[in-house]
Design goal:
By secondary structure, the protein is an alpha/beta fold. About 30% of the residues lie in helices and about 20% in strands. Helix 2 packs parallel to helix 9 and helix 8 packs across helix 9. The model has no long low-confidence stretch (mean pLDDT about 95). Bound molecules: adenosine-5'-triphosphate and magnesium ion.
Length: about 575
């Protein structure tokens, strides 16, 4: 298997995780507990994210560089600590108590980060919702969580009012963008007013390690989103994995492109990097290659965490990076979907840096499997387990299978950031566990050398002529063709073969559908795939159905192809 050997060590700082094999053998989570601050057996994730730095040499260090469309702001750790204290006081004055749910429905504005931390400080449970959700998506989440307060803005609140009468638990809305209370209705709270009147000191509530801290709904790729609840102890894993996988060093400027409405935007857009005392860049604006590269250039971003869908879109603008100085970049990571090896190579060609894939889930709260700076990258492979994580490939009865054999990707269920529960659905929660294993619902293979290869979500794996084929393998082969930028592959029932493989492909700019092109693509993939993995049917489409977090939704391709109901669409792009 081809491996990419990275830049010589003299031009990059020594990785935080230098000896992977040693750590794998010796590391215990308990030994990392003292990397965060405790109050006599209790802790608070928000205290660890900002307050402890506000009391240290990092007091005046910038914690948050916020880039809006036409203005920018910055906040030091001291300021973040004080502002979140004020917000904690606002909530306490409103009667919020430990374990109440307080939700945030905002774009990526500084108030999102401040209020999230403030909620945690009160001991309440913070929830975030992506700002593109419509009334139905909002209703599901606010109803299920029983949120008492919602922080939003004057334009987004209109969507909430369409459903508010049906939300018996939702008491009031806190509106962030109405200066001096102008434009705030009588039963709403003006964030600006309330913050002005609140004290900037607050006794952060000391929580037990297993007390809930925040809840987030999954991406809805395979069905109805689940309300995953995470505990304060998760900060330990978020802290350690940020250091090891994202490799943040003291002077690094770090940009995570994920929205705080999804778990990456919380675990690695906020808690993990702040806990490590890093300066975090937040860009609140639409995707545009030129603008993205200008963010890296302007803030001199060193470490960049994004997703395959974003990298694939950037690769479609092959010259956009040329007019920007991106030499600050040192380390790039990707999560959310399988990272095609073609994209890893594109990273090398474009930035002189490979992209490091890593794998985890909303339910696991933190990274599980990764390619590390200190190890060679295997393009197309997810990497090796985090020290402290036992990952394995098991059959349906929980027995480990031999290396090289496909099976269920499972984990020993004893790491700090594993979910506490699924909100109001303990039956669903229990379904994840069997025989001491946590089942991810994903299928994978572990190679002799320890690296894991993603095959597909259990629901997406295709059974054709008695062979199992993961859509990722076929999609990766397709996008290596210069005319194809994205591909979604499904199994279609077939009397003879059980299922046949059908590929939906999106063409690169400048290519038009033609019989010639189709034949050329077919020839091309035939040379790259085993006979049984070759797609019998091709369809050229303008776009693929995706979640708002950028994941290809194959269940939707299947439903459309077979004329079946499409199920939950709250997280899908328009
Ligand atoms: P839902 O559970 O609601 O169907 P979802 O599984 O997409 O949605 P998330 O928790 O956001 O919700 O995503 C986790 C899933 O994303 C993983 O289970 C896996 O299928 C996929 N994934 C994440 N990272 C990677 C990766 N590096 N390689 C392959 N797949 C990945
Ligand atoms: Mg899932």
């Amino acid at each position: 298997m081809e491996q990419i050997i990275k830049k010589p060590a003299n031009i990059i700082p020594r990785p935080n995780l230098r000896d992977y094999d040693d750590a794998l053998e010796t590391f215990k989570w308990e030994s990392a507990y003292d990397q965060v601050e405790w109050f006599d057996g209790k802790l608070n994730a928000a205290y660890n994210a900002v307050d402890r730095h506000a009391k240290s040499h990092r007091r005046d260090k910038v914690a948050l560089y916020w880039q809006g469309v036409d203005r920018n702001e910055k906040y030091t750790f001291f300021e973040m600590s004080r502002l979140s204290n004020r917000f904690a006081n606002v909530l306490t004055d409103l009667g919020i108590e430990k374990h109440d749910r307080v939700f945030i429905f905002l774009p990526r504005v500084p108030e999102t980060y401040i209020s999230f931390l403030g909620i945690l400080k009160t001991g309440a449970i913070a929830g975030t919702m992506f700002s593109a959700f419509g009334p139905e998506g909002l209703y599901d989440r606010l109803h299920n969580s029983g949120a008492r307060y919602l922080i939003t803005n004057s334009s987004l609140k209109e969507r909430v009012y369409q459903i508010k009468d049906d939300l018996v638990d939702l008491e009031r809305l806190i509106i962030v963008d109405c200066d001096d209370g102008v434009g705030v209705a009588d039963d709403e709270v003006s964030y600006t007013e309330a913050m002005k009147n609140a004290s900037e000191t607050f006794d952060t509530v000391q929580m037990l390690p297993d007390d809930p801290a925040f809840m987030l709904y999954t991406s809805g790729t395979t069905g109805k989103p689940k309300g995953v609840v995470h505990r304060h102890l998760a900060i330990v894993q978020q802290h350690v994995t940020t250091k090891w996988v994202l490799d943040l060093h003291e002077d690094d400027i770090y940009w995570c492109t994920a929205d705080p409405g999804w778990v990456t935007g919380i675990s690695y857009g906020l808690l993990g990097p702040f806990s490590c005392g890093a300066s975090v860049v937040v860009y609140d604006g639409r995707f545009d290659p030129e603008v993205w590269y200008s963010v890296i250039e302007k803030y001199q971003v060193n470490v960049w965490y994004s997703a395959p869908t974003a990298f694939r879109l950037l690769a479609q603008a092959p010259d956009a990076h040329k007019s920007h100085d991106l030499s600050s970049l040192r380390h790039i990571c990707s999560v959310g979907e399988p990272l095609n090896s073609e994209i890893v190579h594109w990273g090398v060609r474009t930035f002189g840096l490979p992209i490091h894939d890593n794998f985890w889930q909303t339910e696991t709260g933190g990274i599980l499997i990764a390619n590390y700076p200190s190890l060679p990258i295997k393009p197309g492979w997810m990497g090796k387990p985090i020290p402290g994580i036992k990952a394995a490939i098991v059959d349906d009865s929980g027995c480990e299978v031999a290396r090289g054999v496909e099976g269920n990707l499972a984990l020993v269920a004893d790491f700090p950031s594993l979910m506490l529960t699924i909100w109001k659905n303990s039956a669903k929660y229990r379904e994840y566990f069997s025989g001491g294993w946590y089942f991810t619902g994903d299928r994978a293979v572990q190679h002799e050398d320890g690296y894991f290869l993603f095959i597909g979500r259990a629901d997406d794996v295709i059974n054709t002529s008695g062979e199992r084929v993961g859509p990722f393998e076929v999609e990766s082969a397709l996008i290596e063709h210069p005319a194809i930028v994205e591909a979604g592959v499904i199994g279609k029932p077939d009397a003879l073969r059980g299922e046949i493989i059908k590929a939906f492909v999106v063409l690169a700019p400048g290519y038009e559908p033609s019989d010639e092109l189709t034949s050329d693509v077919k020839r091309f993939v035939k040379t790259r795939l085993a006979g049984h993995a070759y797609p019998r049917e091709f369809e050229i489409v303008d776009t693929l159905p995706k979640t708002r977090s950028g994941k290809i939704v194959r269940r939707m391709l299947r439903a459309k192809e077979l004329g079946l109901p499409i199920g939950d669409v709250s997280t899908l792009e328009e």
